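Much of what follows relies on a compact textual record of a protein's fold. An example makes this concrete, so a full record is given next.
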Amino acid sequence: MTDGIPARERTSTVAGADVVARVVANLELAIRASHETLELCVLCLLAEGHLIIEDFPGVGKTVLAKSLARSLHLSFSRLQFTPDLLPSDVTGVNVFNQKTNEFEFRAGPVFANVLLVDEINRASPKTQSALLEAMQECQVTIDRETYPLELPFFVAATQNPIEYEGTYPLPEAQLDRFTARLSLGYPPLAEEARMLAEQTTDPPLDRLEPVAAREDVLAAIEAARSVYVEESVGRYVVALLRHTRGSARLALGASPRAGIALLRMAKARAVAAGRDYVLPEDVQAIAVYVLPHRLIVAPEARAAGVAAEDAVREALDQTPVPV
């Protein structure tokens, strides 16, 4: 034991930091995005959360999800949400077997470690809701029978921010189940030119090799769970949430589930930094990715050009930081 912290916990934290570093470096071989953005995807997985990527078509959202699954040697499944998609197309269905005279369960695409849901807002609310139980409880219930999902289970959903015709906006209850939201954006000029050359000759995704195993991911998740959070840091998170609830700019503030997600992501960030304790800086660094999509801007503030991100930054600026 060193400094009051068991050596086993220190070892697991160091191993978790190594997993994050290796995976992010591997993702950088296939995705032309910032280091911070790619690390956030891995942190979301370590926090046992789910990610929503809101960006324009063709910036690499699908490649990102595939690269993450391949880097960790996890099973991958993709769902293209369309208006005619049924809940059973997501979760699976019981099919009658004439040979055995019994119903057999045929698992749907949700039974994978990494599930990419393309254009999640194009399916009906009924189909969207088929993901709720899986995302929250890592299980699927069909005909009163419950089937557990293999861990880790990570949903990466995409939305197109410029097309709204024929879409069904996600309700707040479902948005609240996504741990973080990010955008990849367009790469810098030199990176985009390099990407075009790679994709038209030898796509990096085709030769991407695993750099960690499922067991490494589960160990890193456990290390993130065990990260120590001082009481003052926990109160700081609560103060941020309460600031959003009292903000005149917002019609709806952050829920307690948002606070849980914020703290889980802060713990994952601490592991990535090789620490077994959370700093206020961890909370501040990821708040702008975890909170805005859970907030509803008041009509008058929206008319004035205020975005949810502005309300989060205001909360960060005005909430006293523990020392």
